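Researcher: We're teaching a course module on how sequence relates to structure. For the next exercise, students receive a sequence and then see the predicted structure as tokens, so they can try to spot secondary structure elements on their own. Here is the exercise chain.
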Amino acid sequence: MRAMLAVEQEKLRDQQVEVSECSHQLDLLRKDADKLTQDRADLDTDAKRLAESFQELRTDSRCCSVARQNAEKRDAALRQDLASASEACSRNKGATSLQLTDLKGWRNERQELESVREEAIIVLRHILTESPEDEMQWKTERLLDVVDSVAPNKAKSAERRNTRKKVEIRGLHPLGRVRR
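Model: And here is the predicted structure for the students to work with:
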């Protein structure tokens, strides 16, 4: 019996070693399981943070997209305003150029009228001074020629000449004096 007992004890020791090894492996597996659980919790936390960041980025992206579209609309409106202003400026330049040309023409006309007026004043002074009748006639003719030179159109000049001839036929002086 001792031998059987020794065999049984040997089996029990072997089983104890196995249980001890299994217990040790079980402890290691528990530690691994705990570590995996912790790792999974960390990964879940990271995944949650990444999902929140993703949502924020998506929202930011939408805001940026809307802002970009608004900026493009403003840019298009500004380009249209610029084109309109440029076109208006071109029209104004053309109108200003025409007005300057007109102004130059009016200045030239005014200078011409001023010189005619001065010449007419000189002729009138000579007419109004006691001059012989034959000198008065050519001076009056010269005055009418000066006035006719600035007439707006030739029809009025011709009308004045006809009036002058009618007056001379009646025996009146063109300036309203009776001929002697």
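Model: If you want an answer key for the exercise: The helical segments are 2-128, 133-149, 154-169. Residues 120 and 143 are 6 Å apart (CA to CA).
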